[in-house]
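Exercise: predict the fold of this chain.
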Amino acid sequence: MASQLRVQDILDEADKDLGLHVLAGRDGLSNVISIPRIQEPGLALAGFRAYMETERVQLLGKAELAYLKSLTSQRRSEIIEEFCGLPLACIIVTYNLAPPRSLLEACESRKIPLLRARLAKARIVSRLTRFLEEKLADRTRVHGVLVDVFGLGILLQGKSGVGKSEAALDLVARGHRLVADDVVEIRRVAHKRLLGMPNSSLGFHMEIRGLGIINVLDLYGATSTRERMPIDLIVHLVDWGDLPNPDRTGLEADIEVLLDVEIPKVHVPVKPGRNLATIIEVASRNEILKKRGTLSAQTFNERLLTRLRRATPAMPDNGSTKPAPRAAKQGRAAGGRGVKRAAKSGRGRKRGKP
């Protein structure tokens, strides 16, 4: 699900980083921004508007304002009227520069927010693009628990009551960090990168059957939680009876697709006496090795197959699919040696005759 952002949201949430304030067009702060990329409308001011996207933030820097200043007053007003005649979401002027009066008047009359930032254009583009990409990213919501285990984001899934929260609490007690419990908000912040975070209403609260609602942040301190975490591995907890043939070699790779991103997935059977926290830690360590190119199960399988090939007898050359019996080979070899010895002894006797 793609999101939309109002200009007012930029002022409320990104103002501290960007130092923005409104110069004109305050009535248009409800205008919608739906594209995270920033547009520099130099060609549009020169008259070429074929690739203008009005739902993007328009950025005016020194070059654009210098171009407008170089024009006659009448020509500058015409260009600004044509430019602001488009349904622009908002315009930002960088370097604390003073925009032309005609631009102020056009934005005010057309209800186009004209903002001014104290930062240079390059910094505005970098910071604002990062902010918009996060806010406008495709998003979804899943049931589960997200935990930071050895620097990997582990998403615990499974039916209600299977033990996801208890396993996560055990991991937190071992020094790992909780990101979200019960409801995980997921955003796609890059082509193949998902970012998980807690639900704003739940925060770091967790439900433990028999205890009720607890606050992990209050119980274990600030080092026990994280505000967000990339999702690297899904651990699906399944009742032992519901998984009759669990993977016992590690050669069968499974994935789950979230927001068109493939995430590796393992299925862990659950029964009394199994230490889920230890198993999840091992799964995290194993995934770290896989990311580094070390595939333990595949390496073991290849070494085992190599030994089996060496131990298998050689196939005969007569086209038969059965290997030659070893005893027959040994017998033929022994017979050949006997014939040779007899021939040698006969030659010796002939030489010994008078």
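Check your answer against the key: The first helix runs from residue 7 to 13.
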